[in-house]
Amino acid sequence: MSGRGTMREVTKTAATTSADRSAVISLGLLGALAFLVSADARVMDPLLPVIAADFRTSIAGAGLVVTGYTIPYGLFQLLYGPLGDRAGKLRVMGAALAVFAVGTAACGLASSLPLLVFLRFLTGMTAAAIIPLTLAYIGDNYPYRDRQAAIGRYLTAIALGQILGTSLGGTVADVISWRSIFLAYGLASLALAAVFWRATRTESTTDPLTPTARGPLISVLPYRRLLRQPMPRRVLAAVFVEGFCFSGGFVYLGASLRDRFDLAYAAIGAILAGFGVGALIYSRAVPHLLGRLGERGLVLLGGSLVGTCLIGLATIDGWLPAIPLVVVTGIGFYAIHGTLQTKATELAPGARGTAVSAFAFCLFVGQGLGAAAFGRLVERTGYDTAFVVSGLTVAALAAVFATRVLRPSSVMT
């Protein structure tokens, strides 16, 4: 390695170490929280038939449990951002985590479907605080040149939660009971809540997110201020389109594999878990990719990978090629999304919670509307057309965002 390369690595290491030390809460603990929240969010995917049978209802009736979680998870994003900026992000996260832990454990004791729906509403409402405020917290504690690498490391925990949440939920339901998984998640969350609370109290460093400005804890004014600026509008529009176009098409991949190749649900779950594997690969490779490509090159690469792979998924003749295509799709998606997330943490340095919460809300709304729109497209033209449209639009989005928004000099060195 050249002297210049060695100096660059030493500088990066020193900056990252400095950032780690300045943070009250470590990335490891924050990642553990993200793992549990992500696993809890995905655990219902394989459990709906079991819950329907247990409460003697239909699959559609059991599906209310999913709706009861996802609606508050999306809507309460808008509450926690300004609240975290006003009251302190760590304080809000700690309170939300405690309620999340109790609510999750209580799900395992629910005696009726309406009670379970209510408890999932409660956990979705409180889970909404964890990941957006953590991203804002990372933005407060890591300089921009190190931030995307830190977020990439954080995404590792989210990806693991997504992978294991689905597979573990189904396995435990088959072997023991669906209730046991909620009790386990609840107890684990309670233990982490205690560790989190102690970490915020034993450190001499105060919460850097505690504000000095006066005003109401809950207000729409921070969002109005944010949307007056052109850059936030561009980033929020980009993540909305990303959620609409990518998730709208990709969400139907499992159904496509089932209809085209008559695969077992376990096999479909294993193939879809490859998306999380791609996220893991990205989280490990992002520091090197940024150093070589910069943000513009990374987004262009991600758009190319997603577009190529989704078109490939529309044209395969067997299910085996779907495995590498899904993995590479995960790499490409997070190359785009990770850059958007990093930009979101810089939109409003004095109100990062607000900016990241608006970002998460736009993503959530885009995903919901995209799933509905692409569902109609699937009904009218089939899965293949939906995948091609999804791939082309994501590639176009990446090209526009990279060339119109990101600066040519945005190489991380």
In short:
About 80% of the residues lie in helices and about 0% in strands. The chain is mainly alpha-helical and about 425 residues long.
Helix percent band: over 70%
Instruction: Tell me the distance between the termini.
Output: 16 Å
| Morphology | globular
Strand content: under 5%
Regions with little confidence, pLDDT below 50 for 5+ residues: 1-22, 203-213, 409-413
Q: What structural class should be given to the helix and strand makeup?
A: mainly alpha
- Round the mean pLDDT to the nearest integer and report it: 82
Radius of gyration: 21 Å
Question: What order do the helices and strands follow?
Answer: HHHHHHHHHHHHHHHHHHH
Largest sheet: none
**Count of extended strands:** 0
Number of helices: 19
Task: For this entry, give a set of tags.
single chain; 413 residues; disordered N terminus
Describe this structure as you would to a colleague.
This protein has 413 residues and is mainly alpha-helical. It is built from 19 helices and no strands. It has helices at 3-22, 27-42, 48-54, 59-62, 64-75, 77-87, 89-107, 113-127, 130-141, 144-175, 178-202, 221-227, 230-250, 253-261, 265-272, 274-315, 322-344, 352-381, 383-404. α2 crosses α10, α7 (89-107) packs antiparallel against α8 (113-127) and α10 (144-175) runs antiparallel to α11 (178-202). The two termini are 16 Å apart.
Question: How do the helices and strands line up, and which of them pair or pack?
Answer:
Layout: H1 3-22, H2 27-42, H3 48-54, H4 59-62, H5 64-75, H6 77-87, H7 89-107, H8 113-127, H9 130-141, H10 144-175, H11 178-202, H12 221-227, H13 230-250, H14 253-261, H15 265-272, H16 274-315, H17 322-344, H18 352-381, H19 383-404
